Amino acid sequence: MSKLQIGPIGILPPSATVQGIFQPEKGSGNQLVEGEHKPEEEAIEHWAIQMVTRRNPTLFPGPLIVWGWNKEAEHKAALVLELAEVIPGCNIITMPDYRPIYPKIDPEAVINPCHPNLTVQHNKIEVCALVGIHCHFANITLKMIRANTNCYTTALCQYDGHEDALLSIRDLDAAKLEKLIAAVKRVLKEGTEPWALTSAGKAELEEIKAIKTREKPDEKSEATLFMADLEQGLDENAE
Question: What pTM was estimated for this model as a whole?
Fold first, then answer.
């Protein structure tokens, strides 16, 4: 039995470190899979299988790649888009900001660490990958999702990784993203059936598409336009 179990665990699940789960050392060649240290290639293949076969696979990109603050971030963002394209039925929901979103959050557009489980539950997400999210916010998000949902959480982290993810890939760089893309292509080529191509998956995706089509305005005249004058920024010299 794996050391870390999929949720829902309860209102206050014990942290992975309390259960004696720690990240593999940097340079060890291992990654963390369900609380166990596994060889990196095995972990990457396991990640690809989970993302392909579980319901409503979703990528949650955060500020480290959503905002193009340097060339490396832009390159990673392009690879994440490519990753989403090769995973059948994959969705992208961003976490562009960590501040609470009030009075209403659109769970189909963004995910927020204050209520990530609501986004997961609303979209019936049963496997996700956090990527480009600062570690302290990723830790909060992973605990809340594991506490309240049956989502198989994974973390693609450019630093030390995350014990509270069911699967964690640490030291993420462009080369590892390319390995993830190659692994998805390989498991599909080897005959792994994607959730999106099952009868249940096809029906659910068609239903989602129909709902979005109905909710989309048919004419530009129906769109709400922002007509107010823009406020100027704060004047540092103002009294």
Answer: 0.87
